């Protein structure tokens, strides 16, 4: 007897699969699940797991909401706790014996899944990424223990980094710290100094809070440079190593800006700009994007923190997004531009920038602290808010 499925996910999968011109076997070949399971899900005889839904959405190039039937933004704040709980549980498996009932996927499939997860994060598909994380982390943990290899440990570090990025964007900073610890555990076993340095960059950014001791964050960024120095002379000169070094300077600039240290901001931005002139746009270093555009985006953020609002707008206008620049990065820049526009008396332009960010990356924008601050500022300016602003404020949870 078919399993009751109030959301009719199987029906939606079938409909969107057919629209894409795929047979059941054709779709099954694009996801890490069997044809038999897909057939039973579409017929309603089995429920679709969040991991399967995420994989199908990715294969069909649609949002998870198109399959689940949720509203425009399925990631409502009241559902975040339930969403991240399985991620926490999966991260806790790192030092436990492998469950013999755990059916492992092939190493190549796991590595590909870790890359796909990074792609979801870069495109700000937070619900999809969060749904994929627990299963992938569990499978990678088992495979790394049972058949360890450099490639699998790198994939494990990558998945932990994605867990950090997702939980940070959702405001679960305690879990983000745990994810970075696991990233360090995996990076050490992979023997990859680039991963270790990227982890230091991520750690350092946690010290951009205004009440944090920014000196600790700067020490973390400096240690990231030290890790790169240990990689050997030839490796240090590689484009990949230079890109990570440049990103460490950008992290340091952001931290210094929060502390109001203008000389340090200028120094690190200059170092990053010089490095970017040597590397050009680089977007394939463990899914780290670096180049002139990213330097410009970080400068906008730093100028905002220093309350140099006109300079922030000028820096934003100078940014030339490269082809394929991640939606998460584009949307974050738009949110910063909106703040600069608000502070310089351009309320209409500020609202327009926020709406663009929402269209580009709705899940990320809804949880972005600066987006919420800017909407509050716009509401404060208006005695009577236009319907567009009122709807945006309601959507963002104000």
From TrEMBL:
Pfam families: HTH_31
Domain HTH cro/C1-type: 13-67
Protein name per its UniProtKB record: Helix-turn-helix transcriptional regulator
Domain of life per record: Bacteria
PROSITE patterns per record: HTH_CROC1
SMART domains, sorted: HTH_XRE (SM00530)
């Amino acid at each position: 007897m078919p399993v009751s499925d109030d959301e009719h996910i199987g029906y939606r999968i079938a409909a969107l699969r057919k629209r894409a011109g795929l047979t059941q076997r054709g779709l099954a070949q694009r996801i890490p699940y069997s044809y038999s399971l897909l057939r039973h899900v579409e017929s309603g005889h089995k429920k679709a797991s969040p991991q399967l839904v995420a994989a199908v959405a990715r294969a069909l190039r649609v949002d998870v909401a198109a399959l689940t039937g949720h509203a425009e933004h399925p990631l409502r704040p009241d559902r975040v706790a339930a969403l991240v709980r399985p991620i926490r549980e999966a991260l806790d498996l790192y030092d436990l014996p492998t469950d013999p009932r755990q059916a492992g996927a092939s190493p190549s499939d796991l590595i590909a899944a870790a890359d796909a997860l990074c792609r979801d994060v870069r495109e700000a598909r937070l619900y999809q990424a969060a749904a994929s994380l627990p299963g992938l982390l569990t499978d990678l943990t088992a495979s790394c223990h049972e058949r360890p290899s450099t490639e699998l440990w790198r994939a494990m570090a990558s998945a932990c980094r994605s867990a950090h990025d997702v939980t940070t964007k959702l405001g679960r900073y305690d879990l983000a710290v745990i994810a970075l610890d696991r990233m360090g555990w995996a990076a050490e076993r992979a023997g990859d100094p680039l991963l270790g340095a990227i982890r230091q960059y991520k750690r350092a950014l946690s010290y951009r809070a205004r009440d944090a001791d920014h000196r600790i964050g700067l020490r973390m960024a400096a240690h990231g440079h030290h890790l790169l120095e240990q990689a050997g002379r030839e490796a240090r000169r590689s484009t990949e190593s230079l890109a990570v070094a440049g990103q460490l300077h950008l992290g340091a600039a952001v931290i210094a800006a929060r502390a109001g240290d203008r000389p340090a901001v200028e120094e690190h931005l200059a170092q990053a700009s010089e490095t970017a002139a040597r590397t050009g746009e680089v977007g394939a270093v463990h899914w780290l994007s670096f180049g002139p555009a990213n330097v410009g985006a970080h400068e906008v953020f730093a100028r905002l923190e220093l309350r140099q609002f006109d300079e922030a707008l000028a820096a934003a206008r100078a940014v030339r997004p490269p082809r394929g620049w991640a939606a998460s990065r584009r949307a974050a820049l738009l949110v910063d531009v909106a703040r600069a526009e608000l502070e310089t008396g351009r309320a209409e332009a500020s609202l327009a920038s926020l709406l663009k960010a929402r269209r580009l990356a709705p899940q990320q924008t809804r949880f972005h602290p600066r987006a919420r601050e800017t909407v509050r500022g716009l509401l404060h300016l208006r005695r009577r808010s236009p319907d567009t602003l009122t709807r945006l404020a309601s959507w963002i949870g104000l």
